[in-house]
Structure formats: structure tokens, C-alpha cells
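Q: How would the C-alpha cells look for this protein?
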Amino acid sequence: MTSNPADLAQLQRNRLRAQADMFAAVASHGTIVGTAREIALIEFFRGLVPRRFEILSGAIALTEGGKLQKASNQLDVLVVDTLDYPTVLRTGDLAITLAPSVRVVIESKSDLARGDKFLDAMEQIGQARSLTGGGALSALYCFGDPTNASTLRTWINDLLERRSEFVGWARDAEATRPDKFKSWTPAQLLAVAATYSAANLPDVIVADSGAIALRVDENGKTRFEFYSPLDGSPSIVALAAKVLAHVSQHVVSAAAPAGQTGGATGAFQLLVTHFEASLEKADVDSLDVTDPQPSLGGQ
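A: Here is the predicted structure in C-alpha cell form.
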């Protein structure tokens, strides 16, 4: 008896969910459950990505004037090139890394909801992307909602409205703003608005419940296009395809053995194509997220 290769993605997703939810079955503490799900995501990608890259968690070391600065960020999942780059500090799978060595950054969430919960998650992944200088693939992965593309589009549109509000409040101290933000300085407002800028928005937003948004940069503009899993395939495949496609750019393609074709490049393309075949465009308009002005801090 043989199984259909198309079932592979679903089987991988089932393994991911089983490992992610085991601690939730016996523990109610949010930190324990969240950490268990981060580990499950790490193990998922450890089974896909070539061994020249390691799947770690930790932080990216800041530098200034050629000197290391104290790292203050905490990142859930990092795909790091430890073959060609050193780590600043490491114990087990926890590491402080250098920005040039980071290939992928993934922020993991147990669940998301419209409003502050989603906006805070987008701020976190925006900060992470800015630390890498935009050279790493960045992604937000949620083990729960949102279920459909139209909901995710609404949430991202909320972010655009908040970005515009922050810039407006920073420029007009007399503007009416919610109590939560009344004490914020212009610098604080612009700092958060910068994490919501087109340059720092993630490449991929994926919810296990089904919603998928993929970033597209084209002709000086940035937009999100929305997808849905095809025929019940898991949405994690969208993230897997993007991660594999991105790290393939950093692998020197070896020649294929005699009698075979493709080499390393062909092997990557085979899996990327397999995963992408599980997606279909959602019946939702794309969303332009290009910054409305050249500089968020400009006058």
C-alpha cells in the first residue's frame, strides 16, 4: 500500500499540531504552552532545512561603531547560517546571533485577534525584520485564528490606519488621541509607526486555521496577496515554501550526480513547487501597504 505524496504536507502539519498541543493538554500556563509551540515549529523546520542552517531561538546582537551592543529582543524561531558565521553566545538551541547570519525570522503566536493583539504581534516581527536590515525572510505564524483571508485583510488594514494615526499624532501634538497614547512622545509614536512601515512588514503571515497573506514587492510598491489552502491542505505549507525558496538562495548548487538532473537547486525547487501547489488565490482583493509618504519621520 502506498500513500499519495500530496498527503505529506497534511501529515507534517498533524505532527506539528500534535507536538504543539501536547503541553496545552496538561498545562494552562500561557508561557509553557507558547514555548512548547515554538519548539514544535523549530522541530518542523529542522526536518526541512539543510543542515548548513540551524534552527534556533534567541536574539540578534546589535552593533554600533564596530562594537557589540546588548541585545534586548527575543525571537521565537531563527534560521541561522552557523557554517560560515559564528554565534556571539550559545547554549543548546538558545543563541545570540549576528544579523548577517540570520536567514529567516519567525514570530510564533498561539492565537491572534483583531486589535492590539494582532498589532503587537506585527510590531514584534517588524522590529525583528529591521534588525536584519531586511535581508532575512520574516514571518508571523499563528497556531489559531484568523480563519479566512478577508478577516486577515481587515486586520492588516487596521494596521495601516494605526500607522497613519501614529504619524499624524507625532506631527500634531494637539490632535485628539486615545488615552493609551496620550503620554507617548513623537519619537515613541514614530518608532512604532516605523515597525509598521512597508520596509518592515513581514513576508508571510500564516494562520493554522487557514488565512494566508504573502508580501509582494513590485515597481516600488508593496502589497499583500491573500491565499487559502487548497483541498484541505494545511496553511503551514505556504510558510514552508517561502522558507525553502529563501534559504535556497544561500546554498551553492552542487552538480547533479551522473545520470541525474537538478542538483541542489532542483531539489529545492521540487519541494517548493510541491508545497505551492497546495495553495489557491483567495477571493479577496490584494491590499497595497506602501507607505503614503517617503519617510515616516519626514515633515
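The chain has seven helices and twelve strands.

The CA atoms of residues 58 and 217 lie 28 Å apart.

Upvote if useful.
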